[in-house]
Amino acid sequence: MTIEPTEEQQNARDVFADGRELALIAGAGTGKTSTLSLMAGTASHKRGLYIAFNRGIAEEAKKLFGSGVECRTVHQLAYRAKGSQYRHRLGAPRLPSKVSARVLGIDRDLDVDGKSIEIFQQVRLVREMVRRFCYSADTQIMAHHMERLNGLDEDANDDVARTLLPFAQRAWEDLQLVEGRLRFEHDHYLKMWALEEPDLKADFILLDEAQDTNAVFEKVFLDQDAQRVCVGDPAQQIYAWRGARDIMSGFQAEHLHLTRSFRFGGPIADVANRWLEHAESPMRLTGHGPGPTRVGALARPNAVLCRGNADALKEVLGYLERGVPVALAGGGQALSSIAEAADLLKTGRRTFHPDLFLFRTWQEVQDFVESDSDGQELRPLVKAVDTFGTELIRDAVEKLSDESQAQVVVSTAHKAKGRQWDAVRIGEGFTCPPKDDDGVQLPMLTAEARLAYVAVTRARHGLDIGALDWLDSYEAAVAGPDRHGHIGGRPMIDLPLTTQLRYPSSPVSEFFAQHLPYCDGIVREYQRYVGTLPHPVQPFDVRRPNLSNLGRTIDYRLRLSFGGDLGRAVDLGIDVLGSPVPLPGSPDTAGRKALYSAGLQLLGVVEDHLSGRARIDDAELTRLCYVAGFYEEIMRSGEVRRQSMLASASSATDLGDLVDMVPSYVVHDIADQLRLSRVPLAPFRESGPSSYVCGPVFTGSSDIGGADADLILDGLLLDCKASTRPHRLGREEVYQLAGYLLLDYSDAYRINQVGLYLSRQGGLIAWDVHEFLRRLGASAPLPRLRSDFRRHLRGYR
Fold it and tell me: How many CB atoms within 10 Å of residue 499?
């Protein structure tokens, strides 16, 4: 029986038939694959490629697409082009760790911070470094590809990463050899293929589940010279913590929605839409599922979906106690492993558990998950052990039923993604966000809202919202009287320019949507330009470089090179430390006073350098700028963050102490970026200081929550970006330039060009102002746009 396509599906088909690129945002159960098939039917004369990340999905898709569309997984594409050369190495017996160690040259245990990392654990860590490299967009293995070792502080982790980095590089060299000795896996040939910048040889490419794209394939897809369509649901992106990336939201193409869900009816759609709002998704679903739909208490659900493993275990134990056959999605291996490790540690023995092997006692594990933010992923499993005991856990795992024999399936929300059941109850673990010290409701994390959205949309006919019943009271607590909308209780008009651009409903975004609606052409030109540039430079021998503060540091260095100072944001951050204003995360009163004094000294030293009263060499200037970045961070975030070097200050801390704390990689990284800036910025240095404006603030900056640009050089408004993934820049960055331009209400800076400078590649791309506005679809000349923009913003006051 032929099913008549919906109006949304027809719109998608028409856009595709016109040869336009498309981001198809498909809500839960809205028939995305059938829509792609409908679209492909309009291009039977072209070569099509449908790409899924799961072989089963690709095989099912073949039944819907015609012969003109090849349905493949990413690994299948890579195997055909590259992996087949290594077929004899795939599936080979696993090498014992001692053999792998000999190949790599690892010949002794590694002692660090009073703990020993045995040879076989070093081999495992090296394998994991290679695996994480293979999932990344990086062109070389770096220290940050090593997983964090629980039980070591950040400095010790860096030491281990630097020690193991040469072995990981050696492993990758071996894996690229057709006759190499180390165990070869599918991810290895996938990475080799991606590094060759392959041409997929298709007229159009359909990428499914694009909200969970691996970084390694992201660039391959974006580099294709073909009509590209990505489909998925950004609100279901729940694996960002595992490296998955949403390439849909920033994809420079027409964005359409599929909102008619055939999985469930109106009552469940209404619940889903509330969570979509908190997930900051513009999509709203309508329910058109088969049969009746009900939201309310369920006596016999088919599935219970929980937030974490400990919550799922509690549900399992409850069903077992009542004699109900119950299955645990994904099995109980994770619970069994943690129980075995806990038993060993409680008796003073070592465990080989990959997350716990450096701990000597169970008490150390408990302290770690309670006091270290990096222990939060492990915390639910530790909680399960402490709550139920290891014997009860092992007994429960043994009594689990296979899903085919169970009356109810218990699952975490993460493992439930992609599945559906007739009747679903939401289990424990989904907790309401806390309130601050003044009793004000804190906003919900979008990641948590997405997880709840995934959970409630697994139901087809019956939904028991269970542990999400706090949503009514939460929404009442954050509701504001402003008709223009709030984010976390704060009016959108009070948000800075860059923050407003993230929200389609913000005052700035609303104006641009009406008066500057077209940015695709400029973004495409930018993307093509980025494709001509070398791979971005970045620190390679440190696990977690502070990329945000490195970005601020290169901004300061470039400003200083043109005679500007550090900028008003640094001054304000220092002022906050010297004021009585409460500052979360700051040290005690004496430490805060010391930081204030150090900040004032920092400003004085830099001023002496600029005036010529003192000469500071490049390395020392970089260190001072890096320290300054943490003061600016206070102004931007309203807190002293845990990873800030300022957080550990005492009454004895001075500027010299802070400078000494700057990691060595900072100096090398900034030196690389400054070297790259010499050629592209040289013409501006010749025009003289009178043509420079560093850190310009605009007349209209006070009409919103702030907007300060980086540089204006001889009429060129230049925004500097230190991104390690420049191909991900696009719409927001273009509109950021437009925002600066329009906020200069009185044309005080005489801006005649706007541009982006990519400091990690030495790339500069610029547009004439009038051509820039014309290509954005400007509805009026620049003076009129500025006047209208001012009136629009002030209308929100």
Answer: 17
